[in-house]
Amino acid sequence: MRRALLLVVAALVAGLAWTGPAEAAGPVKVVVAGVKAGPGTQSGACPTTVGFSAVLVVKGHGVTRYRWVRSDGSKGAIKKIKVSGARKVVVRDRQTFESSVSGWQAVQVLGRAGLSAKARFSVQCEGAPIVYDAYHPLPQGLPGRPLEAAASVSADPAGYSGSCPATVGFTGLLQVSRVPARVVYQWIDSAAGESAPQVAEFGAQDARSRTVTSSVSASTSGWRAIRILEPGGHDSGRAPYTVTCTEESPVEATVAVDRPNYEGPCPVNVTFTGEIKVNRAPLDVEYRWAYDNGARSDVVKLDFPTGTTKPATIALPQQFNASGKGWRAVELLSPVKKLVKVDYTVTCNDGTPR
């Protein structure tokens, strides 16, 4: 949580619990200690995040499995630890909150009844949620003022049910109050917790915003968010998603770009290519090209007659007159809905305005 928009992290709640042997490939003993929420109590602007950690002391030979359990009834992804001897492992989780809430999290070791000690937390949001996105840009900072950074996240599509593999793409918008700037951020997933920190570099001539991407393809539901690991950071809210796989996908798509990281004179021609393959025929496939700015091309219909095994290759040539970053995607519309993205970067070094 931040006071005066500063991110403060502290460990305030500690717990100690023990469990017997976990579900494993051999006899493994597990002790769960130091269950903490950091910060455990906070008040200020929202959305914000709370981190959770615990120390698993494991001994034996085999595999132990565990997950985080929450007071709202949700559960984290099941994770495993391989053991050969004795070791201590720090396990972590992080959750994003958009409104005032109190609760707890605990560690569950699979194969045993009960939970670890509970890490209790309380979040008190002051005022309306602060969210900066494409429709509410982060204001430009005044000279001499500290850097501010903000994030927003959207899912596309937010809900999917049908043939798999299918991918839900997440587009994060990072904004800074001035350039040049360096922003450290991480993705937060409702089940998997926090990702490794990532870095976004903004050059002196760059725009004050850029997009970053993530995806999920398994049959699951939850939300994704972005946490800014910088003082003066504004975390994103939650982007909910649902993926329900029912059967093998009858059609698959891939996409590529011939100049993924172009640097040189502008204008420059960049070609995006896609490949659409069907797993059974006859089959009619409808698709279109999708752009990171929300634009869509006309819908195109492909006819795959009986006995067809050769994939269809499609192309999207484009000319770029200025530097920029983003993505293009093949969006399948029928018989399945799916968005397959590829990122690109164009850096004009001939003095073209950005």
Quick synopsis:
By secondary structure, the protein is mostly beta strands. It has strands spanning 2-3, 6-7, 16-18, 28-38, 41-44, 48-70, 79-97, 101-109, 119-125, 149-156, 159-164, 168-176, 181-189, 193-194, 198-202, 209-216, 220-228, 233-234, 239-248, 251-257, 261-264, 268-278, 283-291, 300-304, 312-320, 324-334, 338-348.
Topology:
Elements: E1 2-3, E2 6-7, E3 16-18, E4 28-38, E5 41-44, E6 48-70, E7 79-97, E8 101-109, E9 119-125, E10 149-156, E11 159-164, E12 168-176, E13 181-189, E14 193-194, E15 198-202, E16 209-216, E17 220-228, E18 233-234, E19 239-248, E20 251-257, E21 261-264, E22 268-278, E23 283-291, E24 300-304, E25 312-320, E26 324-334, E27 338-348
Parallel strand pairs: 5-9, 10-18, 11-19, 21-27
Antiparallel strand pairs: 1-2, 3-4, 4-6, 6-7, 6-8, 8-9, 10-12, 12-16, 13-14, 13-15, 13-17, 17-19, 20-22, 22-25, 23-24, 23-26, 26-27
Strands, total number: 27
User: For the record, what CATH class of the largest domain applies?
Assistant: Mainly Beta
Which stretches are poorly predicted, pLDDT < 50 over at least 5 residues? 1-26
Mean pLDDT: 86
Give the class from helix and strand content and strand pairing: mainly beta
CATH superfamily of the largest domain: Immunoglobulins
Structurally, how many domains make up the residues?
A: 3
- CATH hierarchy: architecture of the largest domain: Sandwich
Nearest-angstrom radius of gyration? 23 Å
Most strands sheet: 7 strands, mixed
Distance between the termini: 35 Å
Order of helices and strands: EEEEEEEEEEEEEEEEEEEEEEEEEEE
Please tell me what the overall shape is. globular
